[in-house]
Amino acid sequence: MKQELLELWAGGRILNFLVLFTLLMSLTAFLLATNTELHLLDPEQTVVVALTSALTFGLFIGLAIGAESISGERERATLEPLLLTPSGNRQLVLGKFLAALSPWPAAMALTLPYMAALSQGHQVLGEAVLWGALSGTLLAGAFVALAMMVSIWSNSSRLSLFVCLLVYAASLIPAQLPTEFLASPGGVLITLLDPVESSDQLLSKVLTSGEPLSQAWPYLASPAIALALALGALFGYAAPRLRLTARG
Amino acid sequence: MFQTRDSGADDRTEILHAEGLRKVYGARTALKNLSFSLQAGRVVGFLGPNGAGKTTSIRILTTILQPSSGHFVVDGISSEHPEAIRRRIGVLPEGLGFPRQLTGFRDLTFYGELFGRASAEARAVADQLLDEVGLKARAQSPIGSYSHGMRQRLGIARALVNDPAVVFFDEPTLGLDPRGQRELLGLIQAVARQRHKGVVLSSHLLSEIEGVCDDVVIMNAGEVVAKGSVVDVIGQGGHDDRIAFRVRVPLPALDAARSLIEALPNVQATAPADDASGWLGVQLVPENGSSDPGPRTVNRILETLIAADVPIAGVDSGASRLEDVFLRLTTETIQ
């Protein structure tokens, strides 16, 4: 894992993503602070918008790194020497998983000043950090695991990234659906099936509507189940089948 | 070069034994019944044209691929225990890639740690190996700044970080200039002789195999067509009395040269090269029943051409004797 972290951080890849992340967050915060309509939002709502934006952008970083993790090694012809070491496949995948997850805490830390500024001293900030960190970590883990699985079965990073971007885009679709539909039973089901939308709903309900967790918990369960399933599939099924080529 | 190791083992210790290895991909058989053995301190060469099954063989022996049938034993460890085997082998795969931003020293230290060495020990081993392969001065440079030859030498060092019993080199000199090839082959030979490792060298270059290897396995289309010591395999080809010899003349003089040469005794046939280079292949038969084609026949050919005022642009003693065997046993063109 140390090697992976060194390659990703010292190689500048994660830093490039974080610079892009900061730019996007700056733009989001600027719009929230200056746009006439958005300016009418309460501090709680503003913080939630900033937080969901951070989740959306932050997930992309993990997804992109996870999608390249194995297929990229194949393309660079650096996978074979790793497979030739006595480290098991699971150990190899675990190191890459944790390294691909590492940008998320940094992204969350970079989000704090924006949320602090937008909260205007409101007490929602503490809760937002807690729930944002929790749901974001669950989602980031699930997306990195999913991306790595795709990468294990791809010989090219381009293909792997393409498939992952499709999944990412699909996960953002429910957010574009009308609010009335999302409130219907079908909408709730779709929300619960989509961990990203579910997470957004959780933040919205807990931070702006003040719903207790006893009511909002199904929206936390969705990303938690997604993470459990993705980790189970990655380490239980895909990792032992990691081969020099995707076709085995 | 490498420090000489006291292996404490008998020179003739069998370090690798493969029996009936076979690999099938659907309807295609990539490897048929590969059996051979290797002793510590010796180099066995896998020789064959592209697609002969050399890389498949190495990937099976290095546990990257599972054989469809057959088994092998490395340093007493059965192929049923691939993780244990990986601890006892070193590999320089074909077309090996390196993380460009890491230094050679960091890369070797990382692999040392992956093989279970403590950090300090891994660093010491990395330092020593970089010195032995002649990269000490560039140890702290990023691998991205290394030449191809330097990367291959780093690959050799990486293959030795775990002090393996058997080291596999798959087409190690591909893309190297002649000096780089010679230096790398010297290192590979030193791995066997000075470190007392069993070495498997895969190549499609006859000169590499003939110059470096003690034993050879000639493969074609996934099949072993000859094996044994280099001397024995060349001996297997001794039944054919035809000997190759080439002479290069200007193209306008080619026909005249052919006529002159074919009229000489002990000349069986001539054949001009397809590429219009002016090379004329000459098949000789031994003189007076001797197995030696006789430099006298070659001398006579040259004397005849000189006497006829045919300019001689080049002379090639022809194929090496291993090449004779190889050409006879394989149907593919040597690249």
Structural features, described:
- The complex is a heterodimer of chains A (about 250) and B (about 325).
- With about 250 residues, chain A is an all-alpha fold.
- Chain A has one domain (about 1-240).
- Chain A contains 13 helices and no strands.
- Chain A has helices at about 1-10, 15-35, 45-70, 70-75, 80-85, 90-100, 105-120, 125-150, 155-170, 180-185, 185-195, 195-210, 215-240.
- In chain B, a hairpin with a 2-residue loop joins strand 9 and strand 10.
- With about 325 residues, chain B is an alpha/beta fold.
- In chain B, helix 8 (about 230-235) crosses helix 11 (about 320-330).
- Chain B has helices spanning about 55-60, 80-85, 105-115, 120-130, 150-160, 180-195, 205-210, 230-235, 255-260, 295-305, 320-330; strands spanning about 15-25, 30-40, 45, 70-75, 75-80, 90, 165-170, 200-205, 215-220, 225-230, 245-250, 265-270, 280-285, 315.
- Chain B starts with 13 loop residues before the first strand and ends in a 6-residue tail after the last helix.
- The model of chain B has no long low-confidence stretch (mean pLDDT about 85).
- The interface of A and B includes residues 3, 11, 76, 82 and 83 of A.
Keywords:
heterodimer, A: 248 residues, mainly alpha, 79% helix, B: alpha/beta, Rossmann fold, Alpha-Beta Plaits, 2 domains, six-stranded mixed β-sheet, four-stranded antiparallel β-sheet, globular
What's the gist of this structure?
With 248 residues, chain A is mostly helical.
Spell out the blueprint of helices and strands.
The complex is a heterodimer of chains A (248) and B (335).
Chain A: H1 2-10, H2 13-34, H3 43-69, H4 71-75, H5 79-83, H6 89-101, H7 103-119, H8 124-152, H9 157-172, H10 179-183, H11 185-193, H12 195-208, H13 213-238
Helix pairs in contact in A: 1-6, 2-3, 2-7, 3-6, 3-7, 3-8, 3-9, 3-12, 6-8, 7-8, 8-9, 8-12, 8-13, 12-13
Chain B: E1 14-25, E2 28-39, E3 43-47, H1 54-61, E4 69-74, E5 77-78, H2 82-87, E6 89-92, H3 104-114, H4 119-132, H5 148-159, E7 166-170, H6 178-193, E8 198-203, H7 206-212, E9 215-220, E10 223-229, H8 230-236, E11 243-248, H9 254-262, E12 267-272, E13 279-284, H10 295-307, E14 314-316, H11 321-329
Parallel strand pairs in B: 3-8, 3-9, 6-7, 7-8
Antiparallel strand pairs in B: 1-2, 1-4, 4-5, 9-10, 11-13, 11-14, 12-13
Helix pairs in contact in B: 3-4, 5-6, 8-11
